[in-house]
């Protein structure tokens, strides 16, 4: 009695499992940069590991879902401010992940790109990419959110001939993913040059009345200092032309109190002539000043007199 032998090729692949997610951090970002420029980060592991390639992730009844939820709506800081951001399945904006809605990594060739199909021997974890939403005006501090990532999968793990599946891996589980960003204090400064013009004698120079504008981190208390320039003598700033000097100074507001760089000679944010108080994040705080040539000095030789002042802000 004759018989024939028939060999059916069967491939078995290891299973997916929920593991601890790797935290994601944007690092240190200044408040003005956060307000105007998109920030990106990612996690290499959002809580799912699949050892070996999946036999099939393209059939209509296969899926690899991630449902992300949180008690908050973004990164929350110490003052209650919130930084909004968007989650993505890849390092672009093509596949956004909506909170509370299952996203299927088995679709749009994402599983292939991750190597879940093409790499039959190596364990793969699933990354998630994160991008901030431009326009967050927030105070300085550490911002954080903990996301709950619920994973659910159903795919063919034992495949024979094309279209034939001998076993499926079905499972689910949750992992926690922490996202953080630290906002640092910052200021945008507009400080025009001081130009006294020209005059034949020191007594003929006019007073210059101008302003320095600052846009500083929301809620920040700060103070501003002006250093003594490059050629100070006996507490008076001086401009230089070759070996000749012309003494001048800068005074707070419309008064006669010298604006300096130490202790009470500095100006606090609460002293602004326009919008006094802590920083606004958006909108200027204006500090007026007047600059004058000292008239109790001899008129120096004709020339172009120059000096350089450093403005510093301390929080």
From TrEMBL:
Domain spans labelled Spore coat protein U/FanG: 4-149, 175-310
SMART domains given in the database record: SCPU
Pfam family for this entry, one: SCPU
InterPro entries: Spore_coat_component, Spore_coat_U/FanG
Protein name: Spore coat U domain-containing protein
Organism the protein comes from: Pseudomonas rubra
Taxonomic classification: Bacteria, Pseudomonadati, Pseudomonadota, Gammaproteobacteria, Pseudomonadales
């Amino acid at each position: 009695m004759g018989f024939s032998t028939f060999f059916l090729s069967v491939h078995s692949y290891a299973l997916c499992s929920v593991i601890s997610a790797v935290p994601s951090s944007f690092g240190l970002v200044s408040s003005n940069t956060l307000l105007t420029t998109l920030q990106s980060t990612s996690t290499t592991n959002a809580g799912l590991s699949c050892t070996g390639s999946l036999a099939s992730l393209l059939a209509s009844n296969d899926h690899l879902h991630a449902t992300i939820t949180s008690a908050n709506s973004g990164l929350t800081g110490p003052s209650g401010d919130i930084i909004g951001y968007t989650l993505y399945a890849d390092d672009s904006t093509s596949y956004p992940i909506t909170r509370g809605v299952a996203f299927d990594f088995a679709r749009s060739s994402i599983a292939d790109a991750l190597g879940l199909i093409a790499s039959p021997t190596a364990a793969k974890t699933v990354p998630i990419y994160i991008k901030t939403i431009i326009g967050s005006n927030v105070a300085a501090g550490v911002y954080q959110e903990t996301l709950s990532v619920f994973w659910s999968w159903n795919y063919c793990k034992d495949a024979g001939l094309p279209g034939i599946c001998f076993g499926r891996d079905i499972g689910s589980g949750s992992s926690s993913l922490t996202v953080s960003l630290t906002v640092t204090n910052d200021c945008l400064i507009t400080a025009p040059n001081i130009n006294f013009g020209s005059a034949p004698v020191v007594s003929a120079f006019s007073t210059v009345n101008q302003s320095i504008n600052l846009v500083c981190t929301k809620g920040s208390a700060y103070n501003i200092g002006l250093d003594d320039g490059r050629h100070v003598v006996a507490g008076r700033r001086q401009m230089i032309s070759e070996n000749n000097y012309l003494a001048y100074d800068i005074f707070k507001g419309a008064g006669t109190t010298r604006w300096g760089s130490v202790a009470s000679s500095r100006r606090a944010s609460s002293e602004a002539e326009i919008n006094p108080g802590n920083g606004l994040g958006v909108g200027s705080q204006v500090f007026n000043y007047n600059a004058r040539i000292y008239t109790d000095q001899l008129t120096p030789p004709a020339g172009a007199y120059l000096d350089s002042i450093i403005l510093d802000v301390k929080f």
